[in-house]
Specification:
Largest sheet: 11 strands, mixed
Strand content: 25-35%
Number of helices: 13
Helix content: 25-40%
Radius of gyration: 25 Å
Shape: globular
CATH architecture of the largest domain: 2-Layer Sandwich
Number of domains: 3
Mean pLDDT: 94
Low-confidence stretches: 6-13
């Protein structure tokens, strides 16, 4: 695994030069660039993922890939080009993506016959093929996942990982014999996402449904996981859609049942993207840079040897022993043996990269038979016996993981507001931000008026409706749902 260590010194400009609380957008961009996660590509709206950023994505991918396979899904591959005729087969779906589609119209200097879309999402492409693969109930369920990229023209408000014109993601597509099976699939995947986002990324989420206005175009309903970023804006962390028969009918995905009759199949689709990396940065990062949860950190423990020339071999040898012992215990460890940097420079470098735990090792530590641990999340230092190396490291990593989730949960709870009036609602959206829980009558007209007035939309209709306010915050009629509004990325 690449450590993602830069080979060039960055000098005094290496650190983050703005505070997270004062200029959130600039802080975020600096963290992405200076921590070595990504860089800007020559084409506007595109980014280059650097090895350290890709290693975080690999951690996320490996966790999900294992869970998908455990629940009977297989991986496949889809081409990136989709004929216009296919994309337009499900009209509502096509209309929803039209403004974002990149089109290929030439091969070399020659015009091609039919326009080809660069894949904004793969429903239509996958389902044209599924129709050929499925003929009988014996072919079901079909459960396929694709690790690929999607391309959507984001020219105006781009932000690395959060909103880019090409992004890494996974998209799952399943086909079932009954609606009940499809609905179970939607919730199974949502549960996998929730576990990964909360217990690995340490980002708490609220789960529920999207409103009909905000649901995936072509879905019967969309379930979502919504996170709250440190600047008070919402971020959609992932979605799982029940497509019903809205695609199986136009694409003729039919099967011969045990009753010897033909039936249209029931379908789902679902996905998360590298936007999760953006969430990690926003939720956990601080004025020094990244703070990575141990569960997904490419390097969990970095060992920094501290020595003068006469002690160099002794200290480096002992540091290498520590690295090896940690690795044998399954801990992702890295010993920074570079001589061209001071130990202080290395401390700043690894803090910026968010490595959860640092071990400082000098001649005096070796003499005393001890190791100094420094936590990235709290900056706390702890000396312990060298013989307890693995146990102490594991214990601290567990504590760091718990602490990051606990802090993020506290922030989320502190920033869920419940206004009593529409004026108070508007004031909260404008001044405090965060999630605003209100009653909603279910009318799209009220939803749209609120969005026009405040720039906030319904992020999620929570599954847990026990605290539903009695009246719609906008029109005052009886509420049908508790709705969480927020401004969002």
């Amino acid at each position: 695994m690449s450590s993602g260590v830069s080979s060039q010194p960055r000098g005094e400009a290496a650190g983050i030069t703005v505070k997270k609380s004062e200029d959130f957008s600039e802080w975020y961009t600096q963290v992405v660039l200076k921590a070595g996660l990504a860089d800007y590509a020559p084409v506007k709206g595109f980014i280059v993922l650097r090895p350290y950023g890709y290693a975080i994505w690999e951690s996320i991918r490996d966790i999900l890939d294992r869970r998908f396979k455990e629940t009977g899904h297989q991986n496949g591959f889809l081409p990136v080009l989709i004929p216009e005729s296919l994309l337009s087969k499900e009209e509502d779906h096509f209309a929803g993506f039209t403004p974002e589609v990149f089109w290929v119209t030439k091969a070399g200097d020659n015009n091609i016959g039919e326009k080809l879309a660069l894949r904004p999402t793969s429903e239509t492409l996958a389902y044209s093929v599924f129709a050929k693969w499925i003929t009988s109930y014996r072919d079901l369920p079909l459960k396929i996942n694709f690790w690929n990229t999607a391309l959507r023209a984001e020219i105006k408000a781009t932000k690395p990982f959060i909103r880019t014109s090409e992004f890494l993601w996974q998209e799952g597509h399943t086909v079932h014999a009954t609606e009940e099976e499809a609905e179970q699939e939607v919730m199974t995947i949502l549960g996998i996402y929730k576990d990964m986002i909360e217990n690995y990324l340490a980002v708490p989420v609220i789960t529920g449904y999207k409103s009909d206005t905000e649901k995936f175009v072509g879905a019967k309903y969309t379930t979502t996981l919504e996170g709250l970023m440190a600047d008070g804006k919402a971020l959609q962390m992932g979605t799982s859609h029940h497509l019903a028969q809205n695609f199986s009918k136009p694409f003729e995905i039919k099967y011969l049942g045990k009753d010897t009759k033909e039936h249209f199949a029931w379908q789902t689709s679902w996905g998360v993207s590298w936007r999760l990396i953006g969430a990690l940065i926003m939720v956990h990062g601080d004025d020094k840079g990244l703070v990575l949860p141990p569960q997904i950190a490419p390097i969990q423990v970095v060992i920094v040897p501290i020595h003068k020339d006469k002690d160099a071999k002794l200290v480096k040898d002992k540091a290498a022993e520590i690295e090896l012992e940690l690795k044998h215990a399954g801990i992702r460890a890295y010993m920074d043996s570079r001589d061209e940097y001071t130990s202080g420079w290395k401390f700043n470098e690894w803090e910026m990269k968010g490595v959860p735990l640092r071990i400082n090792l000098g001649p005096r530590d070796i003499e005393k038979g001890q190791v100094e641990f420094v936590r990235r999340d709290t900056k706390d230092k702890k000396q312990d016996d060298r013989t307890k190396l693995v146990d102490t490291a594991n214990s601290l990593l567990v504590e760091i993981q718990k602490n990051l989730l606990s802090k993020a949960r506290a922030f989320l709870q502190e920033n869920i507001s419940r206004p009593a009036s529409y004026d108070e609602f508007k004031s909260i959206i404008e001044n405090k931000g965060g999630f605003v829980m209100v009653g909603w009558c279910g009318q799209e007209e009220c939803e749209e008026k609120i969005k026009q007035d405040t720039g906030a939309d319904i992020r999620v209709l929570p599954f847990d409706q026990k605290d539903r306010p009695g009246k719609c915050i906008y029109c005052g009629q009886d509420s049908k749902k508790a709705a969480i509004f927020a401004r969002a990325y």
